[in-house]
Amino acid sequence: MSFQQRNVTVSLVNFSLILAFLVIRVLLLIAGGNFNSTQVFRVWGIVIVLAVLVTIFATILTHIVYAILQAIRTGQQNPKLEDFEDERDRLIDLRGTRVTHLVSSIGASLSMLTYVLGQPPLVMFTLLIFFGVVAQIIGDIRRLFLYRRGF
Amino acid sequence: MAKSRIRNKIRTFRFFHDEMTQQQLAEKVGVTRQTIIAMEQEKYSPSLELAFRIARVFGVPLEEVFTYEDEDKSK
To answer: A63 and A56 in contact (C-beta within 8 Å)?
Structure first.
């Protein structure tokens, strides 16, 4: 597994956990009768902060763990790390991003449709963040699929 | 996925260059080993620049390493 593949896997795990958090939190709010704007926007904030911070820390941690594992494997103190992005990595990333944009666009349209059909705006905002996270997950799955297939 | 019609002889040229490893070739042309593997399996077609760099490593013209298969042959 290449360094870029590891990064995508870590991102996939992160966003899956964030999605689980979001779904559980929203379901608890609905069950507890606290599905109001204050709570929903609080969940929005937590999800966005988690997405940014966890991604940054996970990327740094992946890099450190990869360097340590390479050092153990090669027996060198400063092992050569294949941690750069080449043209194939960039193309795979672009293809994944295309899927992410497609899913988030469809998700945004569906979210707005709920508002048009008479649902409260809170439902639209909750679905917007939900589809944003789902789009990222599907984009990562597409990237991993392309890596596994070769291109 | 449409199958690529670009064929290559990277594996053959590596063999005739003292059994050059995929890692060595990858380092010489500035890509990852996984990209060399994908090219050898003809799953990935390199950019023109990368193709020229690979041909230069082997010291041969581009068309000796990479060929474009005719449309009727690829079917």
So the answer is: no
